[in-house]
Automatic annotation (TrEMBL):
Gene3D superfamilies: Thymidylate synthase/dCMP hydroxymethylase domain (3.30.572.10). It comes from Rhizobium leguminosarum. This is Thymidylate synthase. It comes from the Bacteria. Keywords: Plasmid.
Length: 277
C-alpha cells in the first residue's frame, strides 16, 4: 500500500511507475494516487505526456489519447459543447458498437451517457448529474453517477436487478461473475464531490496497468472533471485514484522492463530540468 501525491497527472503517473519499478514483481495493492491540480500541464508535463505517447505508439500499444477518449469524449465537447457529448457521441458509438464484436471499446463513456431505468426508460446519467450539481450545489456528497439498467446491445458491467441509486454502473454480476480475466471491467466506481466550490473526483480501479492505461485514465478522468466544473461554473479540485491492484505492465510482451525503466529515466529528466531552473 502506498500514497503517491503530485501536482499534475503526468507527474503522478511518473512517481507511481517509479514506485512500482522498485517493488517485488513490479506490482502492489491499494496504491492511492492524489493529483492536486489535474487539468493544467506545465512544459515538463507536456514533454512527459509526449514521451509516453510516442513510446506506446512505437511499441504497438494504445495511444494515451485513445484511452482518455474512452472515459470522456473531449474532442466532441470541444467541437460541439455539451450537446455533442450528450447526443452526438452516443449516437456515433451506437453505430460503432453495432459492427464490432468487442462492444467494450468506449464503454466507460457510454455507461455514463446512456442507461435504462427500471421501467425501461433511457436516460443520461451524466446529464442528470450535471443538472443536480447546478441545482443543488450547496450539498457536498450527493453527486455520484447514477446506476440504471443496461442498454440493449451495449455491454455494461451492471447488475440489472439493482435499484437505481447513486453509484456508477460498473460491475455486471450476470456477465462478470464467471470470467477470471480479460473482459472484467477495470474501473469499478466513480464518485464526485463538491468542496467549497470545487469539483473533486475519486475513482476506484479493480486492476490497473500503469504503462498501458494509467496516464490515459488520469487524462480522461481529468477531462470529465473539467467538463463538470466548466459547465457548472465551478473550480476543479483534486483527482484521487485507488488502484486496488497496480501493475507495471509490459504490454503483453510488446515492451520490456528495460524499455520501461528507460522511459521513466527520460521522463524524470524533464522534471529535473524544471527543478534546477
Amino acid at each position: 500500500m502506498e500514497l503517491i501525491r503530485g501536482t499534475s497527472t503526468p507527474e503522478v503517473w511518473l512517481a507511481s511507475c517509479e514506485y512500482l519499478a522498485k517493488q517485488s514483481n513490479h506490482e502492489d495493492f491499494d496504491v492511492i494516487l492524489h493529483v492536486t491540480d489535474p487539468s493544467p500541464l506545465s512544459k515538463a508535463d507536456a514533454m512527459v505526456l509526449r514521451g509516453v505517447e510516442d513510446f506506446l505508439v512505437k511499441h504497438g500499444g494504445a495511444s494515451v489519447y485513445t484511452v482518455a477518449e474512452t472515459i470522456f469524449p473531449l474532442q466532441d465537447y470541444l467541437r460541439g459543447g455539451k450537446k455533442a457529448v450528450f447526443e452526438t457521441y452516443p449516437e456515433r458509438m451506437a453505430k460503432i458498437h453495432a459492427v464490432r464484436k468487442d462492444r467494450q471499446w468506449g464503454n466507460y463513456a457510454m455507461r455514463i451517457l446512456r442507461q435504462k431505468d427500471r421501467d425501461g426508460t433511457i436516460y443520461n446519467p451524466l446529464k442528470d448529474l450535471l443538472k443536480k450539481i447546478q441545482d443543488h450545489g450547496e450539498y457536498k456528497a450527493t453527486f455520484e453517477l447514477g446506476r440504471g439498467h443496461a442498454m440493449d446491445g451495449v455491454e455494461t458491467e451492471q447488475d440489472d436487478l439493482e435499484m437505481a441509486g447513486d453509484d456508477i454502473a460498473i460491475y455486471h454480476g450476470a456477465a462478470d461473475r464467471r470470467p477470471m480475466y480479460g473482459h472484467l471491467p477495470c474501473l469499478m466506481h466513480l464518485s464526485v464531490k463538491l468542496d467549497h466550490g470545487k469539483v473533486r473526483m475519486n475513482a476506484t480501479y479493480r486492476s490497473h496497468y500503469y504503462v498501458q492505461r494509467l496516464l490515459g485514465n488520469l487524462l480522461g478522468l481529468a477531462r470529465l472533471q473539467y467538463f463538470l466544473a466548466h459547465e457548472a461554473r465551478l473550480d476543479i479540485g483534486p483527482l484521487t485514484i485507488n488502484s486496488t491492484y497496480a501493475k507495471l505492465d509490459t504490454g503483453e510482451g510488446k515492451w520490456s522492463m528495460r524499455d520501461i525503466k528507460a522511459l521513466l529515466a527520460e521522463s524524470r529528466q524533464f522534471y529535473a530540468v524544471k527543478e534546477t531552473a
